[in-house]
Design goal:
Chain A: Keywords: Ethylene biosynthesis, Fruit ripening, Lyase, Pyridoxal phosphate, S-adenosyl-L-methionine. The complex is a heterodimer of chains A (about 475) and B (about 450). Chain A has 16 helices and 15 strands. With about 475 residues, chain A is an alpha/beta fold. The longest helix of chain A is centred in the C-terminal third of the chain and has 28 residues. Chain B is globular and about 65 Å long. Classes of the chains: A alpha/beta (about 475), B alpha/beta (about 450).
Chain lengths: ~475, ~450
Amino acid sequence: MGLLSRKATCNSHGQDSSYFLGWQEYERNPYDEVENPQGIIQMGLAENQLSFDLLESWLAKNPDAASFRRDGQSIFKELALFQDYHGLPAFKNALVDFMSEIRGNKVKFDPSHVVLTAGATSANETLMFCLAEQGDAFLLPTPYYPGFDRDLKWRTGVEIVPIQCTSSNRFQITAAALEEAYQEAQRKNLRVKGVLVTNPSNPLGTTMTRDELDLLVNFITDKEIHLISDEIYSGTVFSSPAFVSIMEVLKDRNLGKTEVWERVHIVYSLSKDLGLPGFRVGAIYSNDPIVVAAATKMSSFGLVSSQTQYLLSAMLSDKKFTKEYIAKNHKRLQKQRSKLVAGLGKAGIGCLESNAGLFCWVDMRHLLSSDTFEAEMELWKRIVYDVKLNISPGSSCHCSEPGWFRVCFANMPEDTLKLAMQRLKSFVGSIAVNDRSHQELKNSRRKFRTKWVFRLSFQSFHDREQDER
Amino acid sequence: MAIEIEKPGVGLSKVAVSETHGEDSPYFAGWKAYDENPYNESSNPSGVIQMGLAENQVSFDLLEKYLEEHSEASSWGKGAPGFRENALFQDYHGLKSFRQAMANFMEQIRGGRARFDPDRIVLTAGATAANELLTFILADPGDALLVPTPYYPGFDRDLRWRTGVKIVPIHCDSSNNFQVTPEAMEAAYRCAESMNLKVRGILITNPSNPLGATIQRTVLEQILDFATNKNIHLVSDEIYSGSTFSSSEFISIAEVLETRGYKDSERVHIVYSLSKDLGLPGFRVGTIYSYNDKVVTTARRMSSFTLISSQTQHLLACMLSNKEFSENYIKTNRERLTRRYDMIINGLKNAGIECLKGNAGLFCWMNLSPLLEEPTRESELALWKVILNEVRLNISPGSSCHCSEPGWFRVCFANMSEQTLEVALERIHKFMEQRRRRN
């Protein structure tokens, strides 16, 4: 029997990381309100389950869209045969309108610049194939979505070099960090082809500031490299500051039709904003016609089902629906996030101030037995196995500081979130009582904590903590 | 051959600018000509008739009838109770009910002569993705796969473009009805060796595209033996397995393995899709069936890049689990394809054109070598242009399928109405008459 390829036998699929191990543990013992109330609550899955009723009611009112009918006529045959990699025109038109609407109509998108792919997973990989050779590198700010290790590197052979971000300035990208990452790539003999950012950020849940975006544009102009902005969470920005898309910055700086304009590419998907990860709807948006042409051909390897394209073209063309959906979805996300933050606060835990996403970036550094990743893993295991919450450790997101965790809030009902917070509170309480090292850690906390990181007010568990804020 | 980009510094990848996507071949040029002047019975009766597209349009009424009678398949039932769960389902294992239905369907197609385990099925967005994925798994960049000629032009892109893997052809010719022989396989292997290429596998399409014929059992055994002796993989693309005109004539590699007690089967992988048999290319439904556990696991993980819409999985799980529907569909579809095939073969015969004896697929392999000025590729392309521009039929020249004998053409018959096929046959008849008179 012949051996398999190097790709098949290497570990770049990333499935041995803790990110996936937490999932496995959850699968073995999943929480269910009725069947398994002692089970593990899944807080490691960035899914949006808060607005399904809106989708369901639209479907009930518009049965034709799922039944292959247009204006009462069956278009089944037409859809069944439609495999054109240029995509269903009606769907691309509706999609760019939706993308515009999400950005407050401050930018307009051209449907002929859109390439449809089976999910953002496919979009990101396809862009790597188009922009980089095996052995080239892309710079990514940390912490970043663990899936990128697989999506960007596995089959493409592209390398990721991290742009280290820290809590000292809320994990924002700095010019120094960008330059340092670039130099690091040089030292490793890697040719840098571009920067990839996720905006709003996963796992931070924050939108990038205009300054950061300007910095990026300057950087890629100077280095003559690409910029990919994965804006998969753009529809989840529930409070200020408003979302600023990279396209808006380019427009405002009058960079349209310049060289840098063609080196900026956006990735989008309906998996987070609409909560439809199963439907595999992703998109690449590029101003470079060669990239669009190449990516379009490559999309043959991951086209969106025409059945699904049609359903969504009907849904997203309904402007009354999209307006209502976007607004209500924001409200619900904001509300749920507040509950999470309040609950964490009751447990004496703070998190990064955030205005987007389906998760919070939670600071548990004060609960670590030491300022190390080993201690973070130790704490994570306790939270998964003892507290029975599956959350994502910062190390799986390549965070440079131990003690941070991504905690999802949009994939469960309010009651489950409440329960999760109660469990966390009990856990933290039990540490205080049992861990002697906790006292030492509290003394050293002054060194590591900064005011930026915590919310201005939250309930403290111990009176003694009040003087440390 | 890569196009050089004059831009300083950045540029795109070699893959992005190369021509390995193959879109400049006549296969695609014919499509363009059709797109610019498409035949329509009423509005454009002198337009180009598309006979270069291997689509199955003969059995849509059966699908539409099913959908009408089973609205729950397309709408998640009244009030959409299953919608939420379906919309969230992105597990790369795929919907269990769908895999089960696919396994059953594949068994039915093979008349129950082979069994399929749903847990060995990996789902991909079409066979295009399945073939590329397998290539990523079975070979490293620079390695080679042996593929019998003539073969589906899309393989040049699917197997080579992003994978960096090479295709070394196993030359077949009309002397024995284009069947693969041990000598031809051996020659291809040696050819690869002489180019310092490591052969990782052999990929066959059975039933064959473009031949429209099933591979005989003895030949399958020889191919399997060859793969075993060289210790390489065997991929059997059985995308047309449900389009055989008679159930008993198609022998799947699965049956050969079954006969051998599955000995040494970890090197065998089957590709399937619903694009041809069910006529649903737009839905992007492909599968890899592997007898190798490591391949199954790896393929599953890789399928993250090419998952099938859960909405579509749900629809097809319902449809294919319905035994009454699937049995009737397979039987009726076969009958209709057979009827079309007979129609085109007789029509061509009356025009004085011979075809390879076929028993499957959505096309026939037509022999126009007597019409060539010279037995060369250039002559073949010249004839192809004449047929495209004067007869106004888009058919696929054998050279685009890497056929080593000039003069053969693939002609599709299932992607149009019977009336349109009649029109096409009339045009061919007229064309042949004109040529005879000139000579």
